[in-house]
Design goal:
flat; disordered C terminus; about 650 residues
Length: about 650
Amino acid sequence: MATFAVNEVARRTQFTSTGQAAYAFNFQVNATSEVEVHKNDTLQTLSTHYNVTLNTNGTGTVTFIDNSGSGGTNHTPSSGDIITIIGDLALSRTTVLNNAADITTANLDLELDNVLMRQQQLKEMMDRSIQLKVTTPRTVTGTGTSGPLQFPYDGTASNNANRIIKFDSNGTSLELGSTTTNIDSLATVITEIGLLGNSDTIADMALLGTSAVVADLNLLADSDVIADMALLADSDVISDMNTLATSDIVSDLNTLATSDFVSDLNTLATSTNVSNIDTVSGAISNVNTVAGAISNVNLTATNISGVNSFAERYRVGSSDPSSSLDEGDLFYNSSDNVLKFYNGSSWQSLNTSGLNNIVEDTSPQLGGNLDVQAREINTSTTNANIILAPDGTGMLEVKGNTNAGTIQLNCENNSHGVKIKGPPHSAAQSYTLTLPSSITNNYYLKTDGSGNLSFAEVPTETKPTVSDVSQTIAPATATTINITGTNFVTVPIVEFIKTDGSITRPNSVSFTSATSLSVNVTLASGNYHVRVENPDGNAGRSTNNIITASTAPSFSTSAGSLGEVAAGSSVSLDVDASSDSTVAFSETTSVLTSNSDTPASTMNLTLNSSTGAITGTAPSPASDTTYNFTLRATDAESQTADRSFSITVSVGMNNSGQFHG
């Protein structure tokens, strides 16, 4: 029941969320069900996604529900979400004024408030609609330039698809226009259209419009020319022309076009030379091979006398030569398969009894650095080890180059590897890491500061825990509560974390035991997690909101008689109670709403749990009867307030009553 004046205000409020849960609205409603809430474009559901609390003047606050602490869903909006709150008073009337008993100031005030609220709802919707401006010279009656401006719609829905709305040829009515296909097509070439509007482009098009250019374009429009241009437009031809258009090739073509080159080309074009060129082109791979080694060819030409001398020095045959002999000559005897040299008096066979394989040398030594040339040192013996054995205090050293020395241990497929790398030169470090003599399971390696490694147990943190034991206290009042849990250390830091993220520190903290703390705290209304941090920095937090600061509900309707009604008449009474959260009404006795002994001791009426309204038909006892009952107001935190009331049913009354609110 409204007990306030209805202000002139838009019945719609909108927010861009910053991630908060609560959103206030300044239009007025009679009940929480008269509020409609949208998150972006999605309609939300009362008591599922949000709750509504109402102020005494009919304004209120929408608070989104966060059930994540109990394993449910957090419906709190994300930052950037658009939250829209509008009035949604149903277009219906439930109060029927059948007789004098129904015509009360409360009913009349309620119905008049509802009429005004619905008018405000209609105005808010009309303000969001497309309208003609006030000064438009058009009346709402008549036809043509007068009368309503109706929105066109074809009875066949598909005929409306992708159509624009336009004024008719008289400019007086709206009609369906052409489709948006052409508009969409223009939108895809908007950049090109913009380019055509450039002053330089306009100037170029003016040049194209001259008679000489038009004549040239007409020549290009000849069917033969078009066919030739189509051939030139082939992708392969275009690619070839792009290649020819490079600066290097253009320069080469200009060079070829000189008179000397043209003369040379004409000489090459004779039939004899063309034949020779064809022969060379048939062996072009060999020519390319020689060209790739042109420096060697040039070196050979420079030393041609030595080449000719080598031809005289080295010979091959089936029998040893007996003439043109000079000391140092070489000869390969193909009959004996022996390479020989002439010592000045006879042919001598070269000693070929050297090592056939390095394994024949049982104590090989390097005479210089071993360059593996990107090769590997491995063994062909199955499962054999490769052993490096320094002598005495010697060690295996991996030198650095531009980077610190590194050893890489690969996986079995040699596709991954782990590296052990020395410190950089800038660190100026030289130390020895010595592995421990034994292994301990689940321990880690640590150093003693001198490079000696040992296995040590992994340290573990001892974190406090906070038990999920719910408590409710009065807001804005210093209250001492007990926090239970485990692993508390004297004296920890305690924080109360509100659902909006704000943090409150207690007035005092007393360490009782490792499982209990005595905390004095003053909290604003709301729900809080509890966080406990020990002096060593280890901390724990309650899983859920376990502390609620809330004011208990209170009745604004005085105890005692709610009024007198006639037997068998319609009853419309109500009680009011408020809290800092939503209040629900119930009966603790079995009189008002019970039908166990009507009309003797029970009334069989209906109590609205959301509004406190008492409705129904009064019982018809044999004589005037006063029914006594107790109602309870329960808020969202389960805090309660009880109050006793009574209703007197008068048998002598005729459709009249006396009410007390």
